[in-house]
Amino acid sequence: MDQILLLDAAERYLRGEMNDQERANFEELRKSNPEVDQFVVEHHFFVEELSRYATVKRFKANLYDVHHTMKESGEISEYQPTEKGRIVQFWEKYRRTIAVAASIAGITALAISGLTLFFSPKAPIKDIEELRRKVNKLEVRTNSQDVQLNDVKKKIDPNASVTFGGTSFLVDPKGYLLTSAHVVANASQIFVQNSKGQDLRAKIIYTDSKRDLAILKIDDEDFHPLSSLPYGFRRTSSDLSEPVFTLGFPKDEIVYGEGYLSAKSGLMGDTMSSQITISANPGNSGGPVLNSNGEVIGILNARQTTAEGVVFAIKSRHILKTIEELKESDTSANIKVPSTSSIRGMERVQQVKKIEDCVFMVKVVL
What we know:
Helix content is 36%, strand content 24%. It has 366 residues and is an alpha+beta fold. It folds into two domains: 117 residues, no CATH class; 240 residues, Thrombin, subunit H (Beta Barrel), CATH 2.40.10. The radius of gyration is 26 Å and the shape is globular.
């Protein structure tokens, strides 16, 4: 697509000026063409930066108007410069000229920045949020959360601070779980809740801070190991635009989301992660990303706050490397990661029913 036409289409799409048919066609184009999708994401970021710049300019203009009004009313007096204060006189004389020049320079700098973002996709974007769900005060929790907390408090100190950290999922039916390392950071105790609402004690047995991965082990007499896991782990690269789905706990019940692989690398070209276009919220960290064959292709760990639906996931091959490193350092960790999926070819609803028993909410006690 011609760059001018693409820019016009992106502008109309972001401003909501497309009709339903145009919007549907454009969204389909984004799904099928990763370069178009990346352009829309980066242009959205650029437009937001311009909006922030305009807000700052309006704020400065308002300050100037207030200052001028107060000076005219006599509430403040004009500073009388000494011989050394000629720079103040220069500023007063050429204030408007300098302001116009600064505005032009600022807009030019932003335009150059936007072009740099477009032609250099690996430029740093700092607005990244870890998808760890935080609830710090007991009194603001919902009734359902209170019930869950009471169940947990039967096993822990009633004065402990409980945080609903995120999501985890089984990598071995004997009770080995995978989650994001930041979800369980600084935890003194960890509990996981299964799909039936049952809380189980768990412990950290391995942390890989470089990959933001943590392996947990359910250590509770109430846990009954599964016979097998329904999903396998993808050992090769995934394809662009490949449909994916995830399960996680952005709220007090398990939530399903679906999207597609929009880039094979993550932020700033990070090859350890991939970019997923999917809806994700705090609480989704540690959730599995699966393809239509029921294979785990990654684990969610962060999202970009300045662009809708831009999420990052650590690739499955790095999950497998972390598990191998654990097994090398601790021979008692007899983890057998499934390589094949028993839900391949099933309808999505049936796949989810099989998987949800393997996905757990993480509750961290600080």
